[in-house]
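Incident log, structure service

09:12 report received: a user says their structure output differs between two submissions of the same chain.
09:20 pulled the input from the user's history:
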Amino acid sequence: MRLRNPVSGLVVGAALLVGVPMASDAAETPALPPCASVPHRSVEVHLESPGHWSYDHYLVWCATDGTVEWTVPVVTHEVVSGSGCVWASNEETQRPDGKEVTGFAMGEFWCGTEDYEYPWSVLGVSPDGRSWVVDKGVDRSSAPRG
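09:34 re-ran on a clean worker, output below:
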């Protein structure tokens, strides 16, 4: 895995090296906290292993008076029928970075081999409604994380 950004290196490195426990994923959009304005939706990251699985991640956030009040990660996944793959788990974290917020998400798939696949993405959002992909990728390991 090659990280092109120090922020993503910090976030992904911490998650992978410390062995962040993977939590179960809820494929539904979570309930949103109250927002004084209309919440924003970030760009979406789509990662896939064709014929096996797909993984999507975006952020919904509220900005008021030049401040990001909250962010809610949304992750969906699909396992291709007959692929032999299993969705194992997902982990998300958000981190304030000045007025902007960086959101990280990483999923875990096992496809009946000795390898596990971990799609991950790092998104940035700002109070003015802008969003961008900081970095993304798929990590592979011969042992489960966490």
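09:41 both user submissions now match this output. Likely a transient worker issue. Closing.
09:42 reviewer note: The chain is about 10% helix and 50% strand. Residues 6-18 form the longest helix (13 residues).
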